[in-house]
């Protein structure tokens, strides 16, 4: 069993070391051809192109477009675009971490979909800005609210402009927070054909991850920001060594993940080294603070700056809420959620469902934890085939319109 002290050490010290150490992990040192297409997707035998898009607040994001050579010219009609939106501390690689037979990104491409891979600001694949560098604290001045209203919106607009088609969306975890917040905005929802949400989250009040609750109770979010730390990065040289040494011999990494995400049914322990080559990606301290606010207050609202700054920022004392009732009833939703998911708790999922106008199609997987939804070795049969049937049925009904 992992000791809680060890876990606290990883989460408290890694960000600190990143700031203190001269030998920091830097994306600027990556050569430009070290991208998601060249590192993971093309080597697996799939066509992949890199696209750079600009958000309306100046961030440069990478989007990858993936297609399968296996289907060749057999298919006359191109299938619709699907945007894959990853979760917190992950990047677009999240959809390609297992074998082509097991990973959603490859599976959708093999079924003929036009697969687009989103990467939010601050991740290894999307770390550019028109005027700021990663070292500027302003570069990290955002939470999932900006990811939803700027990054996600910019991705959809770009795909819409290239394909002239409405887009299917798949989100996981924070990718579902972004999706649900964005769908409350009519100008974003209108670009979407249908959405599949894995581990859907809007409310976090009943989160039962002991590990996360401990950090919330320690007020780690306030501590980090008070210390002037803006980027949360577990990949500092020192942090990598620490995670490696914890995973190597003393305990298996599944235990560390379990204490954060809930027990994952179908984790492949032999692939941990490969996962760690890419995960975790950085995020911002402000984003962690926003998520912790949701846990403390039970709200699905914009970032809370405190009453004075809220007044200046929003013209009201409390941050405006994202009203799930504003998501159009006509937007088809499909959700898969797990009984062992310590982050997307059943009570909170029910709360989300109650506020929606529409009645999403639901898939409940009793033994699934939070990470299983993307890296379970059985996800294809357990989840993805059902999701693809949902997309197929929406595709049929929209072509009949
Ligand atoms: C688990 O990962 C190993 C190493 O990549 C791989 O050889 C094996 O096929 C994987 N097992 C399953 C069930 O996917």
TrEMBL record:
Keywords: Glycoprotein, Hydrolase, Lipid degradation, Lipid metabolism, Signal. The active site is at residues 173, 341, 370. One of its GO terms (molecular function) is hydrolase activity, acting on ester bonds. GO terms for biological process: lipid catabolic process. Residues 1-22 form the signal peptide. Residues 39-98 form the Partial AB-hydrolase lipase domain. It comes from the Eukaryota. Belongs to the AB hydrolase superfamily. Lipase family. PANTHER family: LYSOSOMAL ACID LIPASE-RELATED. This is Lipase. It comes from Cannabis sativa.
